[in-house]
Amino acid sequence: MDEYKIIITPTAINNIKSIALYVAKELYNFKAAYNFLDNIEIKINDLKLFPFSHPLVKDENLRNKGLRKYNYKSFIIYFVINETKKEVQVLTVIYGKRDQYKEINKLNI
């Protein structure tokens, strides 16, 4: 079975850091922040083997661009697959209660 290479965009890295910092500094829960970082890394690495097991988004325009989502607890990992290069590009990680469509549109996919 071929593994896909994982590419995490600067936007996704910034979002992950922002979430962890919010949990640590605003909620004063350092353990939860570290757990989030560890677990989000594991979930993203899961995409190496089975990226197609996660659904395309419902929005038709974004769906046509190959945007997929991976739900992890209260967060959604958005990514696209480049089958030719055997790559998964993680575009962003968004807290589930935020306006997903608004946040995704900031990416200019």
Give an overview in words.
The chain is α+β, with helices and mostly antiparallel strands and 109 residues long. It has one domain: RelE-like (YaeB-like fold, 2-Layer Sandwich). It has helices at 10-26, 30-46, 60-64, 100-105; strands spanning 5-8, 68-72, 75-82, 87-95. A four-stranded mixed beta sheet has the order 1-4-3-2. Strand 2 and strand 3 (75-82) form a beta hairpin. The protein starts with a strand and ends with a helix. The relative contact order is 0.20.
Summed up, what is this model?
The protein has 109 residues and is an alpha+beta fold. The chain has helices spanning 10-26, 30-46, 60-64, 100-105, and strands at 5-8, 68-72, 75-82, 87-95.
DSSP strand tally:
4
Order of helices and strands: EHHHEEEH
Domains (count) = 1
Order of neighbouring strands in the sheet with most strands:
1-4-3-2
Largest sheet: 4 strands, mixed
* End-to-end Cα distance: 29 Å
Helix content: 40-55%
Based on CA atoms alone, the radius of gyration comes out at 14 Å
- Number of helices, counting only DSSP H or I runs of 4 residues or more: 4
